[in-house]
Amino acid sequence: MKHLFYRRRKFFDDDFDWDTYGQGTSERRLKRAVRPMAALGQLRFDPESGTVQSGAGEVHPNQQLILEAIGKLQPATVHEVGCGGGTHLATAKSLFPTIGFTGGDRGAGQLELAIEQHPELKGHLGLQDVTMPFCHQWPRAELVFTQAVLMHIHTAVSHFVALSNIVRQAQKFVLLVENYQCHNFVRDIETLYETGHLAWEHLSIHRIDGSGGARGILLSKTPLDLPVLRTDLQIRDGEEPSIRRLMRADEGSLRGLFGFDPA
Predict the structure, then answer these.
(1) What SS3 string covers 16-84?
(2) CA dihedral (222, 227, 233, 238) positive or negative
(3) What is the pLDDT of residues 13-42, one digit of tens each?
(4) Backbone torsion region of residue 148, taken as left when φ is above 0, otherwise alpha when ψ lies between -120 and 50, otherwise beta
(5) Nearest-angstrom CA–CA distance, 52 and 94
(6) Helix 108-117 vs helix 23-33: angle between axes, to the nearest 10 degrees?
(7) Buried-most residue among 6, 139, 207, 219 (CB within 10 A)?
(8) How far, in Å, CA of 258 to CA of 196, rounded?
(9) H-type helices in the chain, by residue range?
(10) Which of 214, 156, 219, 150 is nearest to 182 (CA)?
(11) Which of 38-47, 52-61, 125-134, 241-250 has the highest mean pLDDT?
């Protein structure tokens, strides 16, 4: 009975319903799960230590990791897949004014909220469903990142399509800041690469840690001076695996057919 109940739960069976995710939802989630964020203009990036420091207020560890990765890699352009209310983009744009930022989200309401809260993002955002076939109208960027996006995608092999699209959209780097219990990301990325589903000729998979404790998967076209990820155990180091989440993820992954085997 427990297994049947788990299989019927919307959280595990369907992608997140972003149409229900508005400002009220965002505020409730922030109060429940997120530290208070430092206001725009109160952050600075220290190139010597590679850390983002706040003059007042705390920085959420995930946000801190994203900003520190941008500061260290210094891409000319950055695109966020699943930009939601625009908090990460607006903060990064304020902190790194010489970098070009764009964002995409599948929810029109989310984009309206982002522009309402951050008018400076108007003209830099657009509708984007990363589980659709690749669109050449999507902005290309040296660094493409996600934060709590792929973890919600559980419709058959849609997460494979999303990963392939994100890599194709990126010119140098991909940063994934996700719940690493929701998919075997390292295994999936390696499988896609080895079977010809990723656009890059060369791929290095690294772990990148933020000074606030968050950890991310960083894909690069060239090797970096960072720990190399070979298994998902490395990115989950110190965490107890969620067997039922990973079981649910593998149910979708097993539907995938990879490469081209001549008959």
Answers:
(1) CCHHHCCHHHHHHHHHHHCCCCCCCCCEEEECCCCEEEECCCCCCHHHHHHHHHHHHHCCCEEEEECCC
(2) negative
(3) 444 454 544 445 444 443 333 333 455 568
(4) left
(5) 13
(6) 70
(7) 219
(8) 8
(9) 2-8, 10-13, 23-33, 61-73, 87-95, 108-117, 158-169, 185-194, 232-235, 243-253
(10) 150
(11) 125-134
Q: What is the pLDDT of residues 183-202, one digit of tens each?
A: 999 999 999 999 999 999 99
Q: Please give the Cα distance from 128 to 80 (Å, whole number).
A: 10
In the β-sheet with 204-209, what is the strand arrangement from edge to edge?
125-127, 100-105, 77-81, 141-147, 170-177, 215-220, 204-209
What is residue 211's DSSP assignment?
Answer: T
39 and 117 Cβ atoms separated by less than 8 Å: no
Residue found by looking up tokens 């960027």 in the block: 141
- Length reported for the chain: 263
